Amino acid sequence: MPQAEVYYAQQFFTKEESDLYLQRLAEQVAWQQEEIKMFGKQLPLPRLTAWYGDKGYTYSGLYNAPQPWLPVLQELKERVEAASGDKYNSVLLNYYRHGQDSMGWHSDDEKSLGPGIASVSFGGERGFAFRHRERKDIPPVKLTLQHGSLLLMQGNTQRHWQHQLPKTSRPIAPRINLTFRNIIS
């Protein structure tokens, strides 16, 4: 991917670790059903979310006040920091309950974000795609986010590329995704 630094480890965690983390996160995280305003209406986000860490964060017009780190999140953060070489002070969690829960095309390029994001996935495998923001001659890049995988999006990736987790009509197991971030302001 030109103008990007993307690294993907399919089996960053073992199956046993991944199964345990999925269970712990589903049970211990304070999941919320947020709403956003679109087309003049309040609509529920197509997923459950939670925000933990040292600093708050605003996206899609929603302010996320930080909840204190849970031991399971601190444990995951330390493992991801050791692998990525980056430091993170916050994590956004998304709980995709089924194939209709999704995330549309976007870039995590707000001024308050550091350039590196580490994305960890547990649960049902899902398709994930990247597309270049300006160059339409570059075809989208697709991959499958697997149970226990780690995806690093570093450097200028967010400036030049968008990504999405599209809806799917095929039956799919629930999936929890954690995106570790460094809020700088």
UniProtKB/TrEMBL annotation:
User: A single GO molecular function, which one?
Assistant: dioxygenase activity
Q: Is Oxidoreductase one of the keywords?
A: yes
Which residues belong to any copy of the Fe2OG dioxygenase domain?
87-184
What are the record keywords, sorted?
A: Dioxygenase, Oxidoreductase
Instruction: Cite a single Pfam family from the UniProt record.
Output: 2OG-FeII_Oxy_2
UniProt protein name? Alpha-ketoglutarate-dependent dioxygenase AlkB
Q: What organism does this protein naturally occur in?
A: Pontibacter aquaedesilientis
